[in-house]
Amino acid sequence: MALGRRGEEAMAKALEALPPSWLVLHSLPIGSQGADIDHLVVGPRGVFSINAKNHGQKPIRIKENDVTVGGSRVHHARNSRFEASRVGTILSQACGFEIKARGIVAFTSSGVITDLGQPVDGKVRLMAIADVVPWLLAQPAELPPRWLAAVQDTARHARTWETSRPVDVA
Questions:
Q1: How far is CA 114 from CA 38, 84, 109, 129, in A?
Q2: Which of 72, 132, 146, 160 gives a 20 to 30 Å CA spacing to 153?
Q3: Which residues form the domain of 103?
Q4: What is residue 119's three-state secondary structure?
Q5: Angle separating helix axes 129-138 and 2-15, nearest 10 degrees
Q6: What is the pLDDT of residues 90-137, one digit of tens each?
Q7: Contact in structure between 86 and 142 (CB atoms under 8 Å)
Q8: NERD domain: from which residue to which, for each copy (predicted)?
């Protein structure tokens, strides 16, 4: 647990480098089953659900949707894709227009990360924590200013995230 917490803290620290136009929320409770989103980021480049993973010194191998840590298969890409889809659905329903959130799995591990190819669907990206902010800032603009403000305001409300069927927060 402490290893995971250190990963989340490292990701939170890295996200401080984003410009003020970006909203960053940490440890965002979602639903009623005790789940949370490690980091939710909403900016001009889109909506991103970030899962921070710290696997110590174990080597990480990424080949599209197949991710292994220390030789054992993990489901980070699948889980991140599901979380991003859930975020997009909740925000779309609450805002009244379509939001396509993307997932990021950010590794703080000090082991070697071998990237043999990212998932081809574009819904999730796996990378080292140090690469997250530059990657976010390099994405094409996705949210017009009017929509960006609405999505950020909606995301700030805890009630938005309380159930799988969000309520109107206006």
A1: 23, 24, 12, 14
A2: 132
A3: 2-158
A4: coil
A5: 30
A6: 999 999 999 999 999 999 877 899 999 999 999 999 999 999 999 999
A7: no
A8: 3-114
